[in-house]
Amino acid sequence: MALVALQSGGLAVRGTATCPSPAEVAESLEPLMPADRRLPPGVVLHVDAGAEPAEIELRMESDDDPTPFASRRLPRLGSCRELAEAAAVVAASWAGRYDTPAPAKVAPWDTTSGPPGVVRREATPVEAPARAWSIGATGGLDGASAGGATAHGGVELTAALGRTRWFGRVQVAGTGERWFPVDAGTAAWWRLLVIPSVGAAWGGPVFLEASAGPVLGPVFVRGRGFSPNAKDVSLDLGVCPSLRLGYRFGPSARVASVWLGASAVAWLRPHRVAVDMSPNGASIPRLDVMIGLGASFALGI
């Protein structure tokens, strides 16, 4: 059974969609309707579930003629409220361009040609609402002044801060093992990292991100070639600035993205490695440089 919403600026909104409902679209459409222009009687905006579960279908037509003279499919991106706002923007653009001829004389906007006197319209592309959350994965190399380079990998969760360029992110990562000689043996270490950060993004499909935040995590140290080989685990604290250059895919340019990034981690505490009954020792590097590739996927919330 079709759901029917009250008229919005002279335009009746009906349909079978539930997310968003016709009432939600009508509510979002009301402040967007042109104040000095009214549609002829009988013009209806239909908001229906699409043939695909991930789409909704918008049609503007007359009760006197079932042929739609404007139609568009929108992907289900974001919340029901955000999708209602996107649908309202599309409908308002149609209403704003309506020249009030008789409905039967208006051709569908998707038609490339028609009989003389037919009014052609081109649908205005409308970007779907930005989704607030995304999840990602990253991997690459971690290098320092001692111990060479090792692999690193992790996952992250990013949340946009409203409809601004600002975002918050939490990344959890781990590094492979590195080592350097100490006295007659070697000292090996690896890390787990938790990096909460705040940053900003610029650009469209091609984007640049800059972020910074603290780093917290354990460092695991063990000896090799000694008798016995001692082990130690301690908590480390540092700061981490980061830059990313990437590309976004999808109809809203926010469905998925890939990127190349670089980060520097400056550790605040020194870690001295010592050997019993030996004057020789060494310190674990206090600066790490991480370079890697990653991918992020928007969540449907």
Write the layout of secondary structure elements.
Elements: E1 3-8, E2 11-15, H1 22-29, E3 43-49, E4 55-62, E5 65-75, H2 80-97, E6 133-143, E7 149-160, E8 166-175, E9 178-182, E10 185-203, E11 206-224, E12 231-249, E13 256-267, E14 272-274, E15 281-283, E16 287-298
Parallel strand pairs: 2-3
Antiparallel strand pairs: 1-2, 3-4, 4-5, 6-7, 6-16, 7-8, 8-10, 9-10, 10-11, 11-12, 12-13, 13-16, 14-15
Helix pairs in contact: 1-2
Q: Output the structural class.
A: mainly beta
Q: State which percent range the strand residues make up.
A: over 45%
Strand order of the largest sheet: 6-7-8-10-11-12-13-16
- What's the count of strands? 16
CATH topology of the largest domain: Porin
Oligomer: single chain
Mean pLDDT: 78
Q: In percent, how helical is the residue content? A: under 10%
Shape: rod-shaped
What is the C-level CATH assignment of the largest domain? Answer: Mainly Beta
Q: How can the largest sheet be summarized?
A: 8 strands, antiparallel, barrel
Count the DSSP helices.
2
User: Which residue ranges are poorly predicted, with pLDDT under 50 across at least 5 consecutive positions?
Assistant: 1-6, 99-130
The CATH architecture assignment of the largest domain turns out to be Beta Barrel
Radius of gyration: 29 Å
**Total discrete domains:** 2
Task: Determine the N-to-C terminus distance.
Answer: 27 Å
Q: What sequence of helices (H) and strands (E) makes up the elements?
A: EEHEEEHEEEEEEEEEEE
